[in-house]
Amino acid sequence: SYELTQPPSVSVSPGQTARITCSGDALPKQYAYWYQQKPGQAPVLVIYKDSERPSGIPERFSGSSSGTTVTLTISGVQAEDEADYYCQSADSSGTSWVFGGGTKLTVL
Amino acid sequence: QVQLVESGGGLVKPGGSLRLSCAASGFTFSDYYMSWIRQAPGKGLEWVSYISSSGSTIYYADSVKGRFTISRDNAKNSLYLQMNSLRAEDTAVYYCASIAARYYYGMDVWGQGTTVTVSS
Fold it and tell me: Which of A100, A105, A103, A107 is nearest to A26 (CA)?
């Protein structure tokens, strides 16, 4: 079955830039999405279509894509950005969706 | 306001069945694809199933195929997940989410989740 691979954890100091990667063979063909989940809360869509930001999401969140890897970048990280981040996409046929394993962002 | 509210979770024995519901309000439910996603305790998100706005297109994760059935009633603004032959590994918080065409099928609104525990 198709898999998306994320690093388990990323740590940054406040004001620094955090980058979270997500790798998958079908990413050149399928859009990627990023979700933020804080403890005890439902996930929130922060990036869609690889690099677009939904309304209401701060500009410090951005996304990019290169080959089989997509990257979520958080510029000027704030304490409130500490959360789990999940990438999501589909297999090459588009009929099976998948989430990455999630990355815990720690703000030091 | 836009809202999704799940219900129907609970404790069930292995091999048992449960039907989850998701009530939508604040948007035109019949225009939206919908999805179920689950999260086992302390684990990551797992996509379960999605259904098109009319119900004509349905897909399932391999882990639930043949055991779970997604459906919707657009007249009642409701989404359902019928879960049969439940296993311990189905224990999770189950979320429903709307799939937004304006966000290229990103899941933009999520419910608060309902907890399913499969245990003897």
Answer: A100
